[in-house]
Amino acid sequence: MFKNILKISAAACLTIGLAACSSSDETSKSKDEKASSVGESVDYKITGIDPGAGVMKATEKVVKEYELNDWEIVEGSGAAMTAALKKAYDKEEPIIVTGWIPHWKFSKFDLKFLEDPKGVYGEEENIHTIARKDLKKDLPEAYKVLDQFNWTSDDMGEVMVKIEDGMKPDKAAEQWIKDNKNLVQKWTKGVKEVKGKKVELAYVAWASEIASTNVLAKVLEDLGFKVTLNQVEAGPMWTAVADGSVDASVAAWLPVTHEDYAKKFDGKFEDLGANLEGTKIGLVVPSYMDINSIEDLK
């Protein structure tokens, strides 16, 4: 009888062991299948923007750090990325894009950032105002407005949505200024009106920077300045401020996105500090996708 008990116990242990192994194998298989299905559903492609952007360089590091060897980062532009996102979202199809806050897409679509356990994308960063050397001496009134310019992601979001809904950037800026006179008064506090002095601003063609630059331009115009806006890529924008070709920009993302440019032109421009705090970059997906972390792509 004792032998029979031993046999039964051994059989039970074997059954439990096999079940445990089977459960472990199934869990591992499930994770692999999930990663594979997500990758296959988007052809192992991450839809990016222009190759010089900091979010693209950070995403290249993400691919290496998370060993996403089968994945490809598709270069393009901000406009092309949002067009692809809208097309996929309207059909509830899977898509993975490089994203950042503030951006109008978060107001239009239900999106989420993929978690970044390794912290490759870094902490939140800020958008800074940078100016050419001697701007304070040459155009003190414009310099003061630039120095006092500060708002929130919600403020910027209001302008971006107006533009995305079809309103021209200058008209969207004008409307926002009418609705936010108290904040604008803080930017212009102690500033005297001028007559026809010229100010030239540069910015990158991102929805956030189109919004901020047009708002600031309108504020300066209301003070009597003649404002010229130059839409360029990030490299030329920093170069222009550093060599004095333009007066300033309110579109410098630091410390991550434009880190290389800030280092390259160190000492050749003046950093007036953050005009908007709490931005974020990373990989973004529609909330209907069953994925939450970059690790799920491995």
Automatic annotation (TrEMBL):
Write the record's keywords in alphabetical order, separated by commas: Cell membrane, Membrane, Signal, Transport
Q: Does the keyword Signal apply?
A: yes
> By its UniProt entry, which CDD domains does this protein fall under?
PBP2_OpuAC_like (cd13639)
Q: Where is the signal peptide?
A: 1-19
Q: Where in the cell is it found?
A: Cell membrane
What the entry lists under InterPro entries is as follows: ABC_Gly_betaine_transp_sub-bd (IPR007210)
Which coarse location class applies to the principal site listed for this UniProt protein? Answer: membrane
Any GO molecular function:
amine transmembrane transporter activity
Is Signal one of the keywords UniProt gives this record? Answer: yes
Biological process, per Gene Ontology: choline transport; glycine betaine transport
Q: Which residues form the ABC-type glycine betaine transport system substrate-binding domain?
A: 37-178, 197-298
- Kindly state one GO CC term assigned in the UniProt record: ATP-binding cassette (ABC) transporter complex
What is the protein's name according to its record?
Answer: Glycine betaine/proline transport system substrate-binding protein
Q: Which organism is it from?
A: Oikeobacillus pervagus
